[in-house]
Automatic annotation (TrEMBL):
Main location: membrane
Domain called 4Fe-4S Mo/W bis-MGD-type: residue spans: 51-112
The keyword Secreted belongs to this UniProt entry's keyword annotation: no
Annotated family: Belongs to the prokaryotic molybdopterin-containing oxidoreductase family.
InterPro entries recorded: Anaer_DMSO_reductase, Asp_de-COase-like_dom_sf, MoPterin_dinucl-bd_dom, Mopterin_OxRdtase, Mopterin_OxRdtase_4Fe-4S_dom, Mopterin_OxRdtase_prok_CS, Prok_Mopterin_Oxidored, TAT_signal
Reported cofactor(s): [4Fe-4S] cluster; Mo-bis(molybdopterin guanine dinucleotide)
Gene Ontology biological process terms, A to Z: anaerobic respiration
Organism: Siccibacter turicensis
Membrane topology: Peripheral membrane protein
PANTHER family the record matches: DIMETHYL SULFOXIDE REDUCTASE CHAIN YNFE-RELATED (PTHR43742:SF7), TRIMETHYLAMINE-N-OXIDE REDUCTASE (PTHR43742)
This protein's name: Dimethyl sulfoxide reductase subunit A
Location in or out of the cell: Cell membrane
UniProt keyword annotations, A-Z: 4Fe-4S, Cell membrane, Iron, Iron-sulfur, Membrane, Metal-binding, Molybdenum, Oxidoreductase, Signal
Length: 810
C-alpha cells in the first residue's frame, strides 16, 4: 500500500527551504491598515548550524496536533522541521506535521500580520482602521463592556465560537474554555452556547441512542475485517503523522481489512486505498441504511440476540410503554409503521442514487464481516437532516451487533487516547442561558423573540435581551465560517444592534474587518504552553512549546490582554482572574497538578527539554461501550433505559412539543426524512445542483488560507461531474459563477468524475473577497456566501453542507 503522507511532507519541506527567509521581506507591500513590512531580515553571516532550535506546535483546529522544531536565526524563524523523536515505527512513531504546519514560518513572518491595536473608523465591515495605543484600546473595550452590562445585563455579552487556537491550554480559544470566558466569569458571566460548528447535529443526536457519542479508536481496526466509512475523510481532516489517517493505514495494513468509502466525492482517503467507493447523494445516508436494514431483515442477517438483550425499540418485544403500536424500527423498515412504506432496495436506490443490486450486496457484505468498523465523519451530520442521519448510521452497527467489541464500532466517529491535562480553569458562568452556537446572528437581530421550543434557547423559556457585545478571540466565524455572509453583513452593518465587536487576531481576516476594536495577538509558537494531542489513535502525547522569538511590534499574549481588561473593570476582578500568577506561574501550577494525578509524567524541566512526551494507551485500544457490552446490567448506558435506544421516548416528547416547520422532522426512530434544500426539494428547479464545502488540505478552515505555496499546491475550485459540466459547456479550469438566492461566488471549475452527477463541492474556508458596498460577488471562493442560516430542527445546528446552487460558465 503506498502512502502519501511522507511524500507530501518532504515535498513541502523542500519548497520551504529553497525559497528562503528573505523572499518574504522582499515581497512585502505597503498596506492600508498601518502595518509595517517585516522588520527582521536574516543575518546572512549566520549559518544554519548556528540556528537555535525551539519546540513549537501547530495548534489549529484540524483534529490533529503536530510538534514543530523551529529553527531560529537572528530572532527570526527561518526553517521548520517536525518531530524527530522515537523509533519511527508504528506505536512509537513521529508526530510529523502536514504541509500546513511545515509552512507555519510563512504565517509567523507574514507581511500582513497585525502589529498594533486598531480602532474602526469607517462603516463596520469596510475595513478602515487607525492605529491606537494599547491603553486606549483596552479602555475602549472596558468602557463598552461596563456600559453593556449596566444597560442590558451580562446576557447581552456573547463569546463567539472560535477555534483558531483550540490546541492551546493557557492560550486556548475554545469559547467555553478560554481566558475570555474566565474573564467574563469573573465579571458576572456571559451568554454561552451549546454545540459546535463541527458536531452540532451528531453531538446532540447520538446521546439519545447511546447516552454519549463515542467510537472505537482507529487503531482498533487492527482487529477488523471490514471498514465502512460514511463521509469520513481522515486523509484530509486528520493529516498528521500522529493522526488518524496514519493509524487507519497502519492498522489496515496489519488486519488487511477491506474498506468501503460511502461519500459523494472520491476522497483522498479513498484514492487508491479503498476497496470500493460508493457515491451517495448528500443527505440520504439514512435512506441507504434503511434499505440495508430491509435486506438484512429480509435475509435474516440481523443480530437478533444483540438487539433483544441490549436495545430498546427494535421490534414489538422491546418497544417502550407509551410508544404507538407499530412504532418500532422493524415496522418502520418493513412498511408496517406510520408511513406504510417498505424501505426496499428499490425505495433506497431512488433516494440515494445507489443501484439496487449494490444495496443488496452491500447489506450482505456488512452483515457477513465480523467484526466491522462502521463509522461516520461529520460530513453527513452537517446536513439539515443530520441528527437523523447520524443515528441512522449507528443503526448499521447496532443491527449487526458490532457495538462494544474490539474491531467493531458504534457507527460514530473514532475516539482517541489523550493524556489528560489540567486545563486552565475558566470558573463557573453565573449566566445559565444558552443559545445554539449557530444562532448568534439571530440573537443579534431578534434575540427577545427567540424561544426554547422554537429556537432552542436553553436555561430559559426565551431570551430577554439581544446580543450587544461580542468577544471574538482567534476565530473567523463572524463572517468567513458562519453561513450566509451577505445576511450576516446586513445584520452587523448596523452598529446600533450589536454595539461592540472585539476581535483578537493575527491577521486582517474577513471577520477582523467587522471589528470595532482589533487587538494583535501573539501566536502559540511565540508563547510558552503545554498542550495535549488531539485525535491520535492510541498514542497520546504532550508538547511543551517555547517562544520561538521575542514578541515583535506591539503584539501581546492573550493572558496579558485579559488581565489588563480585568484590571480596568475592578481590582477584585483582576485578583480573581490572575490569582496573583503570571502566565508562566500558571503553567507550572497546572503542570504540578497534572503530575500529582499522573506520576508517570516527566517533571517540568525534563518535559521542557524533551519537547514532546509520548505514551501508548495502557488499555491497548479504546472500545466504545465495552463495559456495557460485557455486562449491561452492571454498566448501563447513560440513556433513560440504560440500553441502546433505537426508539427514544425523549425524542418522541420533543417531537410532540416543539414548534417545527412543515419540512422539519424530529423522530423517536432514526428514520430517513427529506429536508429543505435537499435532493428532492422544489427549489431544485431553479438551483439544480447540491453543493457542500468539504474540509480541505489547503487550509485548516480559513487558517493558513493566506499562504501562497499552499494556495498554489491546492487550488480553490468547484468540483463538477463531467456530465453536469458538459450540460453547461464548462471545461476543466473554466471560470464559473456558482450562485443561489443568497449570493454568488466566482472561481474555477474542476471537472472530475471524482464527484457524482448532480452534486458539486468546494473546499470550505477560502477567504471571502467581495466588494460589499458594490455587487457582493465573492472572488475568493468562499462557500459561506451560498449557505443558509436556517438551523437544523433538533440541534439548531449549522446545516452548512445542505445547499442548492446553479453553476454557469462566465
Ligand atoms: N485539512 C483540514 N483538516 C481539517 C479541517 C480543515 O478545515 N482542514 N477542519 C477540522 C475540523 S474543525 C473538523 S470539524 C473536521 C471536519 O471533518 P468532517 O466534517 O468529517 O469533514 P467534511 O469534509 O466536512 O466531511 C467529510 C466527508 O463527508 C462527505 N459528505 C458531505 N456530505 C455528505 C453526506 O451527506 N453523506 C456522506 N456519506 N458524505 C458526505 C464529504 O464529501 C467529505 O469527504 O475536520 C478537521 N480537519
Ligand atoms: N460552509 C461551511 N462552513 C463551515 C464549515 C463547513 O464545513 N462548511 N465548518 C465549520 C467548522 S467544523 C468549524 S470548526 C468552523 C471553524 O471556524 P473558525 O473557528 O473561525 O476557524 P478558522 O477559520 O480557522 O479561524 C481561526 C482564526 O483564528 C486565527 N488564529 C490562529 N492562530 C491564532 C492565534 O494564535 N491567536 C489568534 N488571536 N488568532 C489565531 C486565524 O488567523 C483565523 O482567523 O468553521 C465552520 N464553517
Ligand atoms: S494543520 Fe493539523 S496536521 Fe497539519 S501540522 Fe497543523 S496540527 Fe498537524
Ligand atoms: Mo470543526
Amino acid at each position: 500500500m503506498s502512502y502519501s503522507q511522507d511524500g507530501i511532507s518532504r515535498r513541502t519541506f523542500l519548497t520551504t527551504t529553497t525559497l528562503g527567509g528573505l523572499a518574504l521581506a522582499a515581497g512585502s507591500v505597503a498596506l492600508p491598515f498601518g502595518f509595517s513590512p517585516l522588520a527582521a531580515a536574516v543575518d546572512a553571516s549566520l549559518s544554519p548550524d548556528q540556528d537555535k532550535v525551539v519546540w513549537g506546535a501547530c495548534s489549529v483546529n484540524c483534529g490533529s496536533r503536530c510538534a514543530l522544531r523551529l529553527h531560529v536565526r537572528n530572532d527570526t524563524v527561518v526553517q521548520v522541521e517536525t518531530d524527530n523523536t522515537g523509533l519511527d515505527r508504528y506505536g512509537d512513531h513521529q508526530v510529523r506535521a502536514c504541509l500546513r504546519g511545515r509552512s507555519i514560518r510563512r504565517r509567523i513572518n507574514h507581511p500582513d500580520r497585525l502589529n498594533y491595536p486598531m480602532k474602526r473608523v469607517g462603516a463596520r465591515g469596510e475595513g478602515k482602521f487607525v492605529r491606537i495605543s494599547w491603553d486606549e484600546a483596552l479602555n475602549l473595550v472596558t468602557d463598552s463592556l461596563k456600559n453593556v452590562v449596566a444597560q442590558y445585563g451580562n446576557e447581552a455579552v456573547y463569546i463567539n465560537y472560535t477555534s483558531g487556537v483550540v490546541g492551546g491550554n493557557i492560550t486556548r480559544s475554545s469559547p467555553y474554555a478560554s481566558l475570555v470566558a474566565r474573564l467574563m466569569n469573573c465579571y458576572g458571566g456571559f451568554l454561552s452556547h451549546y454545540g459546535t460548528y463541527s458536531t452540532a447535529q451528531i453531538a446532540c443526536a447520538m446521546p439519545y441512542t447511546y447516552g454519549s457519542n463515542e467510537g472505537n479508536s482507529t487503531s482498533d481496526i487492527v482487529n477488523s475485517q471490514l471498514v465502512v466509512m460514511f463521509g469520513n475523510n481522515p486523509a484530509e481532516t486528520r493529516m498528521s503523522g500522529g493522526g488518524i489517517t496514519y493509524h487507519l493505514e497502519q492498522a489496515r495494513e496489519r488486519s488487511q481489512a477491506r474498506m468501503i468509502v460511502i461519500d459523494p466525492r472520491y476522497t483522498d482517503t479513498a484514492a487508491g486505498r479503498e476497496d470500493e467507493w460508493i457515491p451517495i447523494r448528500p443527505g440520504t445516508d439514512a435512506a441507504l441504511v434503511a434499505a440495508l436494514a430491509w435486506v438484512m431483515i429480509d435475509e435474516n442477517l440481523v443480530d437478533q440476540a444483540f438487539l433483544d438483550r441490549y436495545c430498546v425499540g427494535y421490534d414489538e418485544k422491546t418497544l417502550p410503554d407509551g410508544a404507538p403500536a407499530n412504532g418500532h424500527y422493524k415496522a418502520y423498515i418493513l412498511g408496517q409503521g406510520e408511513d406504510g412504506i417498505a424501505k426496499t432496495p428499490a425505495w433506497g436506490s431512488r433516494i440515494t442514487g445507489i443501484p439496487q443490486a449494490r444495496i443488496v450486496t452491500l447489506a450482505r457484505e456488512i452483515a457477513g464481516a465480523k467484526p466491522a468498523y462502521i463509522c461516520q465523519g461529520w460530513g453527513p451530520q452537517r446536513q439539515a437532516n443530520g441528527e437523523l442521519t447520524s443515528r441512522a448510521i449507528a443503526m448499521l452497527a447496532i443491527l449487526t451487533g458490532n457495538v462494544g467489541i474490539h474491531g467493531g464500532n458504534s457507527g460514530a466517529r473514532e475516539s482517541t487516547y489523550t493524556i489528560t491535562i489540567e486545563r486552565m480553569p475558566v470558573l463557573e458562568n453565573p449566566v445559565k442561558t444558552q443559545i445554539s452556537c449557530f444562532s448568534w446572528t439571530d440573537a443579534i437581530a431578534r434575540g427577545p423573540e427567540m424561544t426554547a421550543t422554537r429556537d432552542g434557547v436553553r436555561g430559559k423559556a426565551k431570551l430577554d435581551v439581544p446580543i450587544k457585545f461580542i468577544w471574538n478571540y482567534a476565530g473567523n466565524t463572524i463572517i468567513n465560517q458562519h453561513s450566509d455572509i451577505n445576511r450576516t453583513h446586513d445584520i452587523l452593518q448596523d452598529d446600533k444592534q450589536c454595539e461592540m465587536i472585539v476581535v483578537i487576531e493575527n491577521f486582517m481576516t474577513s471577520s477582523a474587518k467587522y471589528a470595532d476594536i482589533l487587538l494583535p495577538d501573539l501566536m502559540t509558537v511565540e508563547q510558552e504552553d503545554i498542550i495535549p494531542n488531539d485525535y491520535a489513535g492510541n498514542m497520546g502525547y504532550l508538547i511543551f512549546t517555547q517562544p520561538a522569538t521575542s514578541a515583535k511590534f506591539e503584539r501581546k499574549p492573550i493572558y496579558w490582554m485579559m488581565s489588563e481588561v480585568a484590571k480596568r473593570l475592578r481590582p477584585e476582578v483582576h485578583q480573581r482572574f490572575t490569582e496573583g500568577r503570571s502566565q508562566s506561574q500558571w503553567l507550572q501550577h497546572l503542570y504540578a497538578k497534572m503530575r500529582a494525578r499522573d506520576a508517570d509524567l516527566p517533571d517540568y524541566d525534563a518535559l521542557k527539554a524533551m519537547g514532546i512526551y509520548k505514551r501508548q494507551d495502557p488499555d491497548g485500544h479504546y472500545v466504545a461501550y465495552k463495559a456495557f457490552r460485557e455486562d449491561p446490567q452492571a454498566n448501563p448506558l447513560a440513556t433513560p433505559s440504560g440500553k441502546i435506544e433505537i426508539y427514544s421516548a425523549q425524542l418522541a416528547t420533543i417531537a410532540a412539543s416543539w414548534e417545527l416547520q412543515a419540512d422539519e422532522v424530529i423522530s423517536p426512530l432514526p428514520v430517513y426524512a427529506s429536508t429543505f434544500e435537499g435532493w428532492d426539494s422544489p427549489a431544485r428547479t431553479d438551483y439544480p445542483l447540491q453543493l457542500f464545502g468539504f474540509h480541505y488540505k489547503a487550509r485548516t478552515h480559513s487558517t493558513y488560507g493566506n499562504i501562497d505555496v499552499l494556495q498554489a499546491a491546492c487550488r480553490q475550485e468547484v468540483w463538477l461531474n463531467p456530465l453536469d459540466a458538459a450540460a453547461r459547456g464548462i471545461e476543466n479550469g473554466d471560470p464559473v459563477r456558482v450562485f443561489n438566492a443568497r449570493g454568488e461566488v466566482r472561481l474555477e471549475a474542476k471537472v472530475t468524475p471524482r464527484i457524482m452527477p448532480g452534486v458539486s463541492a468546494m473546499g470550505q474556508g477560502a477567504w471571502h473577497n467581495a466588494d460589499m458596498a458594490g455587487n457582493r460577488i465573492d472572488r475568493g471562493g468562499c462557500v459561506n456566501v451560498l449557505t443558509t442560516q436556517r438551523p437544523s430542527p433538533l440541534a439548531k445546528g449549522n446545516p452548512q453542507h445542505t445547499n442548492l446552487v446553479q453553476i454557469e460558465k462566465i
